[in-house]
Model the fold of this input.
Amino acid sequence: MEGIQHKTISVNGPNMHVAQIGNGPTILFLHGFPECWYTWRHQMLFFAGRGYCTLAPDLRGYADTSEKAFVVGHDWGAMVAWAFCLYKPDKIKALVNMSVPFSPRNRRLHPIETLRTVYGDDYYIIRFLEPGVIEEEFAKIGTKNVVKNFMVFKNPGPFFLSKDKPFPDTEITLPPWLNWEVTAPWTGAKVKVSTKFIVGDLDLTYNAPGAKEYIHNGGMKRDVPLLQEVVVLEGLGHFLHEENPEQVNHHIFSFINKY
Done:
């Protein structure tokens, strides 16, 4: 894409690809599953044209920086962004997160086992845990059809991949969860970064059990005390920043333009 520069940097050993365009205050865009840096192309061009330096890695983690950055996250990227704000709030000027609300650490509830108990073994995250199994199933379906099924998914209910038939009749290895044990010191910790949260009303994460109550009835404000705004966009699903980039760009810009 014209104007966007690409570089490869070493991050504690592994190499990470980063796309960059623009000059000015930094905005770090963190993508989700099953995406890559390209999912932020609309936002990168929009904000680069308004005096910002935009960075979008193919996510394996995030790089340190000597200046405070704006952070924008979605899906798995939102989880990384919440963790970034929790562990390094001094590095972040403000946060706009999408789709996945903050989930405070609970010493009694391991994330994977909780998901297995609530949703069962066919829940998509559980299906990805055994190396090679889901890849073999996807190979039979074809990469194009697999990605297509993910990207057009707009059912507010949980996302299941049944073993006999992962998708309805139809013509990527996930990043690992944060190491739950080493996050013990952050049990009960608050995210103390000025934050705006955006979600589509058809997003499966927004319609997960207890999510709306947590977001709207004070739970998220308790855990993210500097939460400034919650925006629910009507008619949009999980990939809201690609479904309606103009609307999402407006909401991001109106927030970070305050700082």
User: Anything to note?
Assistant: The longest strand covers residues 15-21. The beta strands are 5-10, 15-21, 26-30, 53-57, 69-74, 92-98, 195-200, 227-233. The CA atoms of residues 37 and 122 lie 28 Å apart. The chain is about 30% helix and 20% strand.
